[in-house]
Amino acid sequence: MKQYPDTPDFTGINAPIGEEYSLKNLEVEGEIPAEVRGAFYRAVPDPAFPPMFEDDTALSGDGMLSRLYFGPDGQVDFDIRFVETARHQAEVAAGKALFGRYRNPFTDDPSVDGVDRTVANTTPVWHGGRLLMTKEDGRAYEMNPHTLETLGSYDFGGVLKSETMTAHVRIDPATKEMFFFGYEADGLASSKVAYCIADREGTLTHEQWFDVPYCSMMHDFVITENYAVFPVYPTTADLERLKAGGDHWVHHMDLESWVGIMPRYGDVSEMRWFRGPKGVSTYHMMNCFEDEEGRVHMDHCMSNCNAFPFIQRASGLNVPPQELGGGLIRWTMDMTGSDDNLTQVTLGPPGDMPRIADKDQGRPYQRGWYLSVNPELKGPPLMGGVVGAEFNLLLRIEPDNGRIDAYAFPPLSGIHEPVHVPSARDGHEGWLISFVDMMQGEDDLYQGAWIFDAGNVAAGPVAKITIPHRLRPQVHGWWVPQAELDKSVRK
Ligand SMILES: [Fe+2]
């Protein structure tokens, strides 16, 4: 195509920008808490060239790494740069798109046969003093956290065998180990999953492979103090469909979901599979933990169908966001018995982009945060993002008792996934930082980053940072405190 398609994935707030830029000493309203010092990294898809196919998705966009940096003196700076993936470099050299449909290499220009297709556009991950940009269809790219320069594809020093690495890792707060996995580990539509552990220095110490019941889009997983937990939902890939030029993912409403659980330092042969409901879909888990009775509780943002419009189209489904149902759901698996069924309760309303304090990872927890849609909004939401409409409600939930506090955005506004900044103060829940979009007039778009007191989101932001340059919607973010940045292996 010579121009970007006139579709929701490429227009409005999703209109491509494709510009690398730096902004210094941003305007701040309110007071930035003294504990907010460090870098908020964000992954932003932004296609450098019009796609080969008009029905392409925003998820295909080239990865850009953006950083909102809170300096020691309270100055706030913003930078954004492309991830120089092999794919991006090949397309820049050609001056046009060469890679075809979403995760289907059989639709690529023959000149890029065998070139790494990943766009590294999903999550910036910080571990062992390194910054990685990840997307689940390939290996990560290592980035320089200071200059945002791309250092190259990352395979843990030649040790990683899996061809893929998830964009959702889990870091144990006590051991600082990074637990992760890669699905389609040995190629397209494969049922092989690699389960990996890197020690606190970032050295890959474990990699084992196992088979899932079917090749599934395994976007996230969870750990507890003793287990690794692998949810499998019925959005599936098929090699013959890919070879015929079709879609990577089709969602099946008549197929069961599963949860595989194994001792986190055990052997994959110890995996136990629990049977979940048919047709459901989850992208993100909030947390998982064990209780004293030997049960595993997994809290996840589940919907009753896959939320992505392009996957629904490929599946012959048409369920708009407001009819997806589901909620923040707890699935409980009893590890003491032999029953392969799980039980389900609802903790909170539908939503996504859950966040917990890092210290609560894999442990019983008293609070979490996620995004939802305000049911009382007197006006339209802001269209855009990867599922069509932005979230406009920031929720704080106490999962033990269901108590919810919320901050609601006005019509034609949206909020993106927050990062959590811990507080050293006794009893203080820390801070949340989120990027927000607000239409203030027909053509007047305000964009900025807002800081909330995590224990009192309903009170509204304590500080607002204006970004005087248009931003494309992010996928995920990661907070790196200054003390961690100072220990970076890259200078
Ligand atoms: Fe995600």
UniProtKB/TrEMBL annotation:
Q: What superkingdom heads the lineage? A: Bacteria
Q: Which GO terms describe its molecular function?
A: carotenoid dioxygenase activity; metal ion binding
- Can you tell me which residues bind Fe cation? 168, 219, 284, 476
Q: What is its EC number?
A: 1.13.11.-
Example GO biological process term? carotene catabolic process
Report the cofactors: Fe(2+)
Which keywords, in A-to-Z order, does the entry hold?
A: Dioxygenase, Iron, Metal-binding, Oxidoreductase
Note describing how the cofactor binds: Binds 1 Fe(2+) ion per subunit.
* Matches recorded under Pfam families: RPE65 (PF03055)
Can you tell me which family this protein belongs to? Belongs to the carotenoid oxygenase family.
What PANTHER family does the entry give? BETA-CAROTENE DIOXYGENASE, CAROTENOID 9,10(9',10')-CLEAVAGE DIOXYGENASE 1
The identity of this protein, by name, is Dioxygenase
